[in-house]
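Standup notes
- DV: blocked on the single-chain target, sequence here:
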Amino acid sequence: MATTKIWKVQKRLDHVINYATNEEKTKNNYSEYGMDEFDSIRQVMTYTTNPDKTEKQFYTTGINCEVKDAVKQMQFVKTLYGKENGILAFHAYQSFNEGEVTPEIAHEIGVKLANEMWGDRFQVVVSTHLNTQHLHNHFVINSVSFKDGKKYYSNLTNTALLRKTSDEICEEYGLNVLKEKTCKSGINFENFYKKSMRDSDYYKFAKEDIDYAIEHSWTYQEFIKKLKDMGYEVYFRANKISIRRYPYKRNIRIERAFGEEYSIENIKNKICSRYPTREEVIKPKTYDKRLFYKGSTKKLRKPKGIIALYYYYCYLLKVYPKKNLNYKLTPEMRAEVKKMDKYSEQIRFICKYKLETINDIDNLKEQKQEELQKNLNTRNRLYYKRQKLDNECEKDAVSKDIISVTSAIEKARKEIKLCDEVGDNARKMKEQIKKLDDKEKKKVKEKKLKKETKEKRKKTERYEAWKKKIYEQNRVKKQFWKTVNKKQQKNLTYY
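- DV (later): unblocked, structure below
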């Protein structure tokens, strides 16, 4: 059983400095490198790699760096990407129960945890302390990635992931795992991690793709192939499947993320259980519904203003396909469809209030703000009135009025938000369309210039060819007459 925690290293770590036993190593020995502001990293390194705690540093390991020069190497990465300020590093630990593991196993688990959590992008120093009855690992993680220069972002999701990964590795080594319960802060990390995955488009789309691959596969090998065809990289570790899709850099262990029903055995059972009942379903041919309009279309008004801008923008984005094709959407396409739902809502809002200009939007926003303030005042009066009442029936009646006013408030706030979104989007759309028009004009201009240059070159070539032809003709004529004159002179008789 192991417990984990992570916190940031910024300027000073007084709670860590107090535990440092070797004062000689906390001195600034690297002033020539301009590292005065990085004392906190060096102090953490001193504490985590203290020889009295690690048996002469036998249980220390550097990942993507050397333990002795870890401070210099971390500083070099920060200087390389120009990110020497702010959070300097992160300090984490992993603690085990008394007598549960040996120092070798504890350090091995710590190295595995560090490799899986940060090994692909960050420099990490792993150190196993043996000075207490509870063996524990310390991790010092550079805040700046050596791979792309991006900073590590520590939030509740990553904290939950750290604990989840630690528990999985402990289970691989046959260790007990803490039963999930709410901590002092009121956060259930298991539920928080699952909720964060549910809310993430990356995890949601991945689960949809996995279900699609299971449904349309005859064998387990075909299931893996379909995942790869959809752009996923598939990894196998400890008889478990992990997938990753560009541009995301984090692997998804599907059993951990989506439950035991997505283990390798259960996936195989799902595929095999469908063999007897699996049939190819031929979908009936569908026809597009046709609407007939009686009368003349000349009286129909063309859309103007902002609504016309939205329609044109949707046209440019190819929102209106010629055929309704039935195929599996890619994650990128699904993200765009999600955006288009917002555009559709905004178009309905524009049509409802017949908004044509930015001034119309501003006037509507002012009107809705006044309405919102009026409803808020009304609700406050109702709250005050309900407090003064003693009769339960009258209280219930006032509560119903409060609920109706609250719904009106929510509606007004939503419409105010839509006013802001429509105004911002209208300005952005104009800019995008202008850029597109400028690009098209530039293309037309370049095409025209290219055509003119080509025609000019052809004219020049034709002129040069004609000039060369005339020159050749004149040369032949001169040569001919020169030959004729010579013959005449030979045949000439003198008297």
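- Follow-up: The chain has three domains: 2-188, 200-273, 302-446.
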